[in-house]
Design goal:
CATH architecture of the largest domain: 3-Layer(aba) Sandwich
Helix content: 25-40%
Structural class: alpha/beta
CATH topology of the largest domain: Rossmann fold
Strand order of the largest sheet: 8-13-12-11-9-10
Number of helices: 19
Distance between the termini: 37 Å
CATH class of the largest domain: Alpha Beta
Radius of gyration: 31 Å
Shape: elongated
Number of domains: 3
Number of strands: 21
Largest sheet: 6 strands, mixed
Amino acid sequence: MSTPHHALPPTVPVADPIPLRRLLVSVFDKAGLDQLATALKSARIEVVSTGGTARALEAHGVEVTDVAAVTGFPEILDGRVKTLHPNIFAGLLYRRDRPDDIDIVARHGIGPIDAVIVNLYPFEAIVAQPDCRPADAIELIDIGGPSLVRAAAKNHAFAAVVTGPDQYPDLIAMIARGGSTIVERRLLAARAFERTAAYDTAIAAWMARHAGLVAEPAPRALPPATGTPDAAPLPARFSLDLQERLALRYGENPHQSAALYAPAGARVGLAGLKQLCGKELSYNNLLDLDGATRLAGLLEPPAAIVVKHTNPCGAATASTIDGALATAMAADPTSAFGSIVAVNRRFDRACAELLLQPGLFVEVIAAPAFDPAAVELLTTKPTWKASVRLVEVPAGDPWEPTHGLELRSVAGAILAQRPDDCCDDPATWKVVTKKAPSPELTPVLDFAFTVVRRLTSNAIAVCQGPSLVGAGIGQTSRVDATRIALEKAGSRARGGVLASDAFFPFADSIPLIARAGIAAIVQPGGSKRDAEVIAAADEAGIPMVFTARRHFRH
């Protein structure tokens, strides 16, 4: 895969260009060879080439010298060895301003190579295919190609290097002018080293998985016990090739510049988002989208999530996606104004009609897909039709390109961890109070404990049925988080359930929960005062379940 084309400056100086008299061409991607061949023929440039590339150029009327004629040695080992020879690399690497270098190549009858045109085997594309076998991947680890590219790039003072068809127009312009300038060769060399770095990064990532250094995530239905790592130890070292995917107007604040970067080849999750309409996405929009889509992806039934400032202020499941959306939007209407909405099913006309109600406004709507009728309504009917951003987010494992790791930056470093994306299993939970929750509350407790994991710690979620009705988020005290969540829920807390992302360190939250009429509590447990908390719940007559699994989110 070639690197993105960056046009050479229009004012490149043309004084004293180095003539392009002899080129080596060896490309996997044959696109654009017809135009290149026309330029090579018109300039009567000597062309050295290999195998399929030589045949393709000859078909376009270019006279080609086979590499074997230059090296004096045939291509062997099914093409694994063909260009790796001093007659090739000395012709690329000798310094034209060094008398000793000139004397050595002359003594051995080695001719100069003024430019290399090489694009590499499509390793990244092939290993991304689900049926790719290790043997196929290994055969696509190019040896000679990167060596040629690096040699020409290293000696860019005298040789040019072209690594993709997107650069042919620049090369053709050089040929027409009579040679390449140092500015042009320096820019081409920089792009060449970017390409080999990306190529080696892709190979290293695949090889790490092949060698078992990168473990697969734990099965979603069988979460490990508290304190047990989700998978094998993290790799001691890994590299990422990040490409700018989306230029952003600014960062969290107008004085901060920002952009969205993604690993090369990543096409799922936010790395593969497709914006259908609306204003440009902002840095904060993307942070909110991450929270909304990740929670939506954890819920199996039709689900809708409403996020404001990275935290869900509404979340619901229902038998239909519009039913889930109506409930989620009603959970906290004040916070829902100007929010981010994500659903885990196709966004249909009924969903769009719901958002057309007076007083509603959303910044972004994310879904796996949109019905054309929904797009038509949202982009023509509401007063905010020109502002709303409709974003398709493809399903799939977004962590595969990052070695199965969730990455976050801190000053001068990167934190890495296995994502907290495995579903919890209520069958493993333990009732710790004398009174057990009624069976009909089990799915509600499961829903609440799923939602609370996407709230910012300290976090409390109050749910009435499969709907979030109150959230206490980002508090330094769990009792404060409890108080805020119950105040948000109001009368809707009565008969509902309460979930905590971590244990209650003291029993001081239980009286608040009891006064609100909560029917059951779900929490990880693990405090040294668990016995006091359980006793307080028993005294209040509130069933409590321990999950033995914490879900902090900072």
